Amino acid sequence: MPKLFSQLIILSLSALLLVPINTLAYQEVTNGGDLVATVSPNNPGPNTLVKISLRAYGVDIDNSLISWGLNGKLANSGFGLKNFSFQTGSLGSRTIVSIDVLPRSQSGTIKKLLVFEPLDIELNWQANTSRPYWYQGRALISPESTVIVSALVTAIDQTGKTIPPETLIYKWNKNDKILNLESGVGRSNLTYTATKKGADKIDLTIITPSGNTEHRSVLIPVENPQIALYLEQPLLGTIFQQQLKAEQVINDSLAVRAEAFGFSNDLLDFNWTLGQEKIFPKLNDLGLMYFAIKSSNPINQRVDLLIKNPAKIFQSAQTNFFLNNTKNQTTF
Q1: What is the SS3 assignment for 16?
Q2: Predicted confidence band at 300 (pLDDT cuts at 50, 70, 90)?
Q3: Alpha-carbon span 78 to 83, nearest angstrom
Q4: Which residues are registered as beta bridge partners of 70?
Q5: Domains in the chain, start-ordered, CATH in brackets?
Q6: Which residues, 6+ apart, have CB-to-CB distance to 246 below 8 Å?
Q7: Exposure pattern of 277-313 as b/e (b: 16+ CB <10 Å)?
Q8: 263 closest CA partner among 148, 141, 124
Q9: CA 148, CA 187: separation in Å to the nearest integer?
Q10: Cα–Cα distance for residue pair 94/159, rounded to 1 Å
Q11: Which of 74, 143, 207, 289 has its CA 20 to 30 Å from the CA of residue 219?
């Protein structure tokens, strides 16, 4: 696999792995005493085994009668029964866990209610950068490029009704900086400028109308733009199936197509050189360079290409290849 495509595919997969999706938030209400429930995992997903353990302050919980209810039915009961396990339902379901603690030394009952509400969050991002029309992968995020992050949320309230995404509150952070102007009710999209190097950490907190909150975080890497070189033939056009070799043999003539990946969609500068001499395309297409035989001398010349974005000084890429022919010398 060519290096360019392997890097882009790995980048796309790594970005997907960094996006947490399909998790449940839960609400908690306690009456009659100080009862602490520890839920593991903190944000269980659909069809997930959940473990709950209890602690109490001012109450001998080990000698208390503890009753566990699941969706309105008694699931288990016993003295000192501090641990309980259950499995969440599928996405869109609602699970209610009720806990009654009756201490031996007290007449009152401590009650706790845990309501697990489905909150499915998917974070998608895309960059407004260059890529060939045939390339189906994710556009490369380069320094100072424009990035759009979209939050796709499915939320269900305590009555089982779907909460419209436009009624949710979206609070965005970038690199630990609060983005007040980009946050608010229904603000499910974030548009920002990528950092000059490294990665951008994007945090999102979603608040439902009932006050339920859920947090997501994704680290979006920033990569330098890249160049891919291909042969171009008069009848077949650009041969995108295989990149140009590091050493390219030329017979009578040769046409090379340069494709820029990861540049912002601005006017780019293409700087071609053959040996130490700057060369220019014969047509208005700056990414297409023609080479032709001029003499019969053996040749082995290096061709360099530097692409720069004048509007984004941190966006540049360069590559090179060698033209050789044991009998002939080439010019452009």
Answers
A1: helix
A2: confident
A3: 11
A4: 73, 97
A5: 3-22+119-221 (2.60.40.10), 24-116 (2.60.40.10), 226-331 (2.60.40)
A6: 321, 322
A7: eebeeeeeebbbbebebeeeeebebebbbebbbeebe
A8: 141
A9: 12
A10: 9
A11: 207
SS3 19: coil
Per-residue burial over 220-245, b if 16 or more Cβ lie within 10 Å, else e, is bebbebbbbbbbbeeeeebebeebbe
Q: Which of 248, 131, 244, 143 is nearest to 198 (CA)?
A: 143
User: Against a cut of 0.70, is the pTM above it?
Assistant: no
Q: What are residue 167's phi and psi, to 5 degrees? A: -95, -5
In 3D space, the residue among 230, 302, 289 whose CA is nearest the CA of residue 259 turns out to be: 230
Q: Which two tokens stand for residue 332?
A: 């452009």
Residue burial 30-54, b: 16+ Cβ < 10 Å; e: rest: eeebebebebeeebbbbebebebeb
Q: Give the length of the chain.
A: 332
User: What would the pLDDT profile of 17-32 be if each residue is shown by its tens digit?
Assistant: 333 333 345 667 777 6
Q: How far, in Å, CA of 13 to CA of 15, rounded?
A: 5
